[in-house]
Amino acid sequence: MTFRDLRGWIRFLEEEGELLRINDEVKLEPDVAAIGKAICESEGPGVFLEKIAGYTTPLTIGLHASWRRAALALGLKKDATREEQLAAWHRGWKRFPVARVEVGKAPCKENKMVGGEVNLFAFPIPRVNQQDGSFYICKPCCITRDPDTGVVNIGMYRMMILDRAKTGILIPSHQDAGRSYAKYLRRGQTMEMAVALGTEPILPMVAGTRIPPDWSEYDFAGALKGEPVEVVRGETVDLPVPAGAEIVLEGEVGPEKAFEGPFGEYHGAYSGYLRLPVFSIRAVSHRNHPIFDTLYIGRPNSENHYMTLFGKLVGAEEEMKRFVPSITRMAYLGPYGMNAVIQGRWRHSGEPRRAMNAWWGSSFGPHAKLLVCVDEDVDPWNPFDVMWAIATRVQGERDIVLMPHSEGVLDPTSNREGLSCKIGIDATKPRYPAYSYDPVDWVTEPPGTAQWKEKILQQWNRGRNP
User: Fold this and answer.
1) What pLDDT, on a 0 to 100 scale, did the predictor assign at position 246?
2) Which of 29, 100, 245, 417 is most buried (CB neighbours < 10 A)?
């Protein structure tokens, strides 16, 4: 089953017994965050909060916060296995693209605020963790366009509320929106951006994954769903926005910077203060009686873990297997994306090192801090198996590889320049190259080679010149 908007997703979750409605009034702080964390720890139902004190807009949280609902979002049965969910993501890669379809009228434009009417504080945007520097939008689909290729990108980047119409936004330089932003700045231009809040369930899952930079997430979401995503042109930006979105923010990101943070990130530590670009909002559109959809993020497991982990992993597999065909399986162990395991049918003792180098040089390399290579007799998803391989097949001076001064995206131990030391562990069985042996001598030409060379050339030349 596929979904066209958040409301259809909510109705389906209710029918499946995967949604709990709470009619009692709750406080934006600390109740919303506490509810979100409770859902993640228990893999309980998603929650629809009907009444948020001081607001007229209801709020949903935890709609993706279980493997059951992640499977349902992909059109699978709720008890679908990990392998079945990974296979669904791989099918999306094979079906790409299913191009978006633009429509003339859309529910997301039922109400509009422009200029001085814009007021982010009208929506129940929570402070996620106690020491967060402000209220944060944590489940945005940030829509931008590459100025060179025209490809429309959708990414998920944390957004800290600065005032009624401005947010700080973390758009890392190695991600698509970050690269586009740098291009606009070099041209002396601002980058238009739209932010969709409260969409059908596939778009947030895709926004947090990794696909090739010349692919649009709209077309990949369509491939996962098996049908096109419906979009409409923005009110004040030349960008397609999801037609069924609950709320759409439109504006631009320019050279202005502001202090952002702290923020309780996915690894469980607070990030420090950063000077980040500012998103200036010039228009907001929303549906009648909008629903604000958000998530909890903090010490694992968080909702983002269930929502995007398999998508990230499949993106990594698709990219890595092109460079190292011996790879058989890959896995992420907790915390979210920071510990990766690569299983292989290794043909050469140097191949695990090649896999490490390919990983660190890839688009997802900045995130994983620890990378372990194992053999086919080790289940990469089983931490006990992986630790057994490390304990029985690793010698520290031989099998541990350090990659210092590497890009350490959001690593809480990275230095002020954002640099971190990556760690690779070759936990594979000893094997030797087929051509590895001690030479007994050096090969010389067979006896008579010089004479035969002269004879062959003489006879060949006579034949060519009778």
Assistant:
1) 98
2) 245
Strand spans (E) along 164-318: 166-169, 191-197, 230-233, 240-242, 247-260, 263-264, 270-271, 274-286, 292-294
| Architecture, CATH, for domain 83-290 | Roll (2.30)
The C-alpha torsion from 453 through 455 and 459 to 462, rounded to 10°, is 100
* Alpha carbon distance 2, 458 (integer Å): 77
Task: Average pLDDT across each block of 10 residues of the chain; the chain has 466 residues. List them in order.
Answer: 93 96 94 94 94 97 96 96 96 96 94 95 95 95 97 96 97 90 97 98 94 95 96 97 98 96 88 92 97 94 92 92 94 85 93 93 82 95 94 92 85 81 92 52 78 86 71
Contact status, residue 239 vs residue 246, Cβ threshold 8 Å = no
The reported pLDDT for the residue numbered 437 is 46
CA-to-CA separations, 237 to 250, 252, 276, 464, in angstroms, rounded:
7, 9, 22, 74
Q: If you count them, how many residues does the chain have?
A: 466
* Rounded Cα gap, residues 238 and 190, in angstroms: 13
Residue type, 401: V
- The predicted structure's pLDDT at residue 441: 62
Range(s) within the chain of domains with CATH label 2.30.110.10: 83-290
Output the CA–CA distances (angstroms, integers) from residue 44 to 4, 35, 141, 293, in the order listed.
24, 10, 25, 17
Are 315 and 308 within 8 A, CB to CB?
Answer: no
Query: How crowded is residue 102: how many other Cβ atoms within 10 Å of its Cβ?
Result: 13
The separation between CA 4 and the C-alpha centre of its own chain, rounded to angstroms, equals 22
Residue 466: predicted pLDDT: 58
Q: For residue 335, what pLDDT is reported?
A: 73
Separation CA 295–CA 33 (nearest Å): 8
Residue 135 CB burial class (10 angstroms; 0-12, 13-18, ≥19): buried
Instruction: Give the residue numbers marked as catalytic.
Output: 265
Q: Distance between CA 159 and CA 169 in Å, rounded? A: 5
Largest CA distance in the chain: 107
pLDDT at site 458 = 87
User: How far apart are alpha carbons 374 and 377 in whole angstroms?
Assistant: 8
Q: What is the DSSP letter of 346?
A: -
The answer to whether domain 324-426 has CATH 3.30.70.2570 is no
pLDDT of residue 258: 96
